[in-house]
């Protein structure tokens, strides 16, 4: 039984229906409704700290919880071989750790697990043996104790370098100028009614990370920078007068600017206004929010530059290709013909096309929502190098990441969200794995003290299952 990187659930259907989707014929006997509910609750209890109402449509859950439902669908079938193909890429840290504990329990009973991942820490945590594939060929199989990060990276890329940001990359670039101009201001932004308002300033040339447990506000914050506030507060893009006038002419809207010193602040109230004001946004779920699956690579790239490359709604092939060529080279996009479907590319190269689409608009502010999710280490390095280049040119970057190491290696500071509020801001000098994970839980720890990761007790899952079964039988 396999679980894939893409989140494969039926949105309008309930949690229970998704967990049992296609599984009725697996068991030789008919599975009762109460047994289905009990088994679904037991499996989801292993994966999630809080099991959602089984009758809730899956489309109302977070991305991480939707993927947990897909994983639960595989686990209820009690497979002898479980294949997890980048299945953790959509999971938050807590759910991923609970999955690893669930896998360890099943491995102890004789189940075999094939685990595909580009994340070194995951391979180290779960694997007994490691096979490395490159360019469609197996290049090595190692015992886990031999599979050091340096050796795996060398085998995966064919070159010696460190994981994440390289030694000459963004982690070692100069700190941004404290007097650099402010490009984006957030004032009194309230993400949920009961949360504290958020104030924030983004300066030219800096990379600001957004972190926190899944569903605690960081995703809502980056979307507010792009779409405008969901309720109270304001998001203001600061530009010089000439740029603001050009943005208004391009679609920011008359009356959007408010004079501030020698510049103009444009209030962001929609995606259209954000794009016109020089903001670009790369969404988290590229398949659902960024890609046109039935269209070509060229057409997907040109989606953000229709004004420049199109006429009467039609894209000029020559113009789009001329615009695409330098970004293809700059981002090292590996592809066949530009007329090939976008789905012919790997996940990493699809992501590069989405990023290239926005770079073609020459943004001053780039919003990246978990941009390295599900991409290989080579593509990650290309994206890291791009961020370094952009910030040297004065572009400001806000990047939500679910990888702790990315925050430590790439960010100038990290905003940590908890329960819908900005709970901590960690400057580069204070960033460690311990300090960041502790901030997720509203705590502070000394840098040399490990942060314990809670592992779910199998007995609690069994108790939850028994309770669910009793409730279901009582209802019937």
From TrEMBL:
GO terms for molecular function: ATP binding; ATP hydrolysis activity. This is Sugar ABC transporter ATP-binding protein. The keyword ATP-binding applies. Keywords: ATP-binding, Nucleotide-binding, Repeat, Transport. Pfam families: ABC_tran. Residues 178-444 form the ABC transporter domain. The keyword Cell inner membrane does not apply. Coiled coil: none annotated. It comes from Actinacidiphila oryziradicis.
């Amino acid at each position: 039984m396999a679980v894939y990187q893409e989140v494969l659930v039926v949105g309008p259907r309930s949690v229970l229906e998704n967990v049992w989707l296609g599984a009725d014929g697996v068991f030789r006997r008919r599975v009762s409704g109460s047994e289905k509910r009990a088994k679904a609750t037991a499996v989801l209890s292993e994966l999630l700290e809080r099991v959602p109402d089984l009758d809730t449509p899956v489309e109302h859950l977070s991305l991480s919880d939707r993927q947990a439902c897909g994983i639960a669908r595989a686990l209820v079938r009690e497979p002898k071989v479980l294949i997890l193909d980048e299945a953790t890429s959509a999971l938050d840290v807590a759910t991923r750790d609970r999955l690893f504990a669930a896998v360890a329990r099943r491995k102890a009973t004789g189940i075999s697990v094939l685990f595909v991942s580009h994340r070194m820490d995951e391979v180290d945590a779960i694997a007994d043996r490691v096979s490395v594939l490159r360019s469609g060929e197996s290049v090595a199989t190692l015992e886990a104790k031999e599979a050091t990060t340096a050796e795996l990276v060398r085998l995966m890329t064919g070159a010696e370098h460190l994981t994440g940001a390289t030694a000459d990359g963004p982690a070692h670039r100069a700190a941004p100028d404290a007097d650099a101009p402010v490009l984006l201001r957030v004032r009194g932004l309230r993400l949920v009614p009961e949360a504290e308002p958020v104030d924030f300033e983004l300066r030219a040339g800096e990379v600001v990370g957004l972190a926190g447990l899944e569903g605690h506000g960081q995703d809502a914050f980056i979307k507010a920078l792009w779409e405008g506030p969901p309720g109270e507060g304001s998001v203001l893009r600061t530009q010089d007068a000439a740029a603001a006038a050009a943005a208004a002419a391009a679609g920011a809207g008359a009356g959007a600017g408010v004079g501030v010193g020698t510049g103009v602040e444009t209030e962001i109230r929609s995606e259209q206004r954000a794009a016109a004001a020089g903001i670009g946004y790369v969404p988290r779920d590229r398949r659902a929010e960024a890609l046109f699956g039935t269209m070509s690579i060229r057409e997907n790239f040109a989606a953000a530059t229709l004004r420049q490359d199109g006429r009467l709604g039609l894209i000029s092939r020559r113009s789009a290709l001329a615009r695409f060529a330098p970004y293809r080279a700059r981002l090292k996009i590996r592809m066949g013909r530009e007329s090939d479907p976008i789905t012919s590319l790997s996940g990493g190269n699809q992501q590069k096309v989405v990023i290239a689409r926005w770079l073609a608009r020459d943004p001053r502010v780039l919003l990246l929502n978990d941009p390295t999710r599900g991409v290989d280490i080579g593509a990650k390095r290309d994206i890291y190098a791009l961020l370094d280049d952009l910030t040297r040119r004065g572009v400001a970057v806000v990047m939500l990441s679910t990888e702790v190491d990315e925050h430590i290696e790439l960010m100038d500071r990290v905003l940590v969200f908890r329960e819908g509020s900005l709970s901590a801001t960690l400057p580069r000098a204070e960033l460690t794995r311990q300090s960041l994970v502790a901030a997720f839980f509203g705590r502070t720890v000394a840098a040399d003290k490990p942060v314990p990761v809670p592992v779910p007790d199998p007995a609690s899952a069994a108790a939850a299952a028994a309770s669910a079964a009793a409730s279901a039988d009582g209802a019937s």
